[in-house]
Amino acid sequence: MSDLFWLTDEQMARLQPFFPKSHGRPRVDDRRVLSGIIFVNRNGLRWRDAPREYGPAKTLYNRWKRWGDMGVFIAMMDGLSAKGSERKTIMIDATYLKAHRTASSLRVKKGVLGA
């Protein structure tokens, strides 16, 4: 069994409207590249450490950089969150969040962090 991440057909169908138009040469497989980008980011890997099943690391990085600069990923997230707005919203009550008991007693030494 593989530990690699692959976008499903349903996920790709939902993302397809946000892809920019291809100009000139056709793009390499969008599913492979996007799955690779997600895998690298989710696992905190360097681009060059991406499994070869996702294709060349340079391709993953170039697509991530180019589409990031164009705002494609932000448009995807905004579009997907707007489509899912009919789902029930879950709120987190901050009164349930607790800091470690020693967090309030931390002292900063002189010369550290400008103190």
UniProtKB/TrEMBL annotation:
This is Insertion element IS402-like domain-containing protein. It comes from Rhizorhabdus wittichii (strain DSM 6014 / CCUG 31198 / JCM 15750 / NBRC 105917 / EY 4224 / RW1). Pfam families: DUF4096. Keywords: Plasmid. Residues 7-76 form the Insertion element IS402-like domain. InterPro entries: IS402-like_dom, Transposase_6_like.
